[in-house]
Amino acid sequence: VQLQASGGGLVQPGGSLKVSCVGSGFSFNSAWIYWIRQSPGKGPEWVSRTYTATGNTYYMASMKGRAGVYRDNAKNTLELQVNNVKSEDTAFYYCAKGDSDTIFDWGQGTQVTVSS
After folding, report:
1. Measuring CA to CA, which of 48, 56, 75, 104 is 20 to 30 A from 4?
2. Which of 17, 18, 19, 21 has its CA nearest to residue 4?
3. What is residue 87's DSSP assignment?
């Protein structure tokens, strides 16, 4: 199992961040894929989980209305977009694979910094 996140960088407050996850070595089109982030000095925080076979996605409460997850099963890709970003969204963003309530495999992360 391999998962690679990309697309991080510097984002201005109020703008949008987009990060992508590419998976390989497993059946991407029927998997639970998670987005998790970790801010400096804090523990990991679950952002969303998606069942790629149906597209059903669940978000943490503070992301509802600001986040969207988009999948392209033909390209084994899952994208997270967060709108109206704040400094609190600064974090290392990881994608991971698991089942509906447990993460088994972590991928490489990508840094997102929200700053003017």
Report:
1. 56
2. 21
3. G
Give phi and psi for 110, each to the nearest 5.
Answer: -140, 140
- CA distance linking residue 6 with residue 92, whole number of Å: 11
* Amino acid 111: pLDDT: 97
Provide φ and ψ at 66, rounded to 5°. -110, -20
Count of CB atoms situated within 10 Å of the CB of 18: 17
DSSP β-bridge partners for residue 6: 20
Contact 31, 94 (CB under 8 A): no
Mean pLDDT over 81-99 rounds to 96
Structure tokens at 74: 């033909």
Residue 16 and residue 65 in contact, taking contact as beta carbons nearer than 8 Å: no
CA distance 109 to 92: 6
- Does 22 score more than 90 pLDDT? yes
